[in-house]
Write a structure and sequence with these properties.
Length: 142
């Protein structure tokens, strides 16, 4: 399963409120028995497997969108997630995924939108800065 652009992820990750769907994304995940980062633990911690050609072990949180790669068998998905995004709503959940109410779902989805908008805006600002520098450099060389 490939989730390329942020736009694709925005739509595709809506379905990732389902633990089963997240789990299915780890079909080709190499860390199984005797590992801390098993597909089950990864899915519980909100991760979706988003492999690419250059980084086959990239996992992305479907709420905060933090991408992590370079997993080791003894990496604990909760700890790794917490180190990078300590305020991720997934980590603050006090219920199991199948115990969420409609209100919990709407609240999580609202926060998911906020993370997407922030990431999307940051990406657009980076693009804008890059273009500005290119244009400036072009003008200087006239
Ligand atoms: Zn997260």
């Amino acid at each position: 399963m490939a989730f390329g652009s942020i736009r694709e992820r925005f739509y595709a990750f809506e379905a990732m409120f389902s633990y089963e769907k997240r789990l299915q994304s780890f079909e080709d995940w190499p860390f199984r028995e005797d590992c801390l980062c098993t597909p089950e633990q990864m899915a519980k911690m909100g991760f979706v497997h988003c492999p690419s050609e250059n980084s086959p072990d990239t996992a992305c949180c479907f709420i905060c969108l933090k991408e992590l790669e370079g997993w080791e068998p003894q990496d604990d998905p909760r700890q790794e997630h917490s180190k990078r995004t300590p305020n991720c709503p997934v980590l603050l959940l006090e219920k199991k995924w199948d115990e969420l109410t409609v209100g919990d779902y709407l609240n999580l989805n609202h926060q998911r939108f906020r993370f997407f908008i922030t990431k999307w805006s940051d990406m657009k600002m980076d693009e804008f800065r890059e273009k500005t520098e290119e244009t400036l450099s072009y003008i200087k060389n006239l």
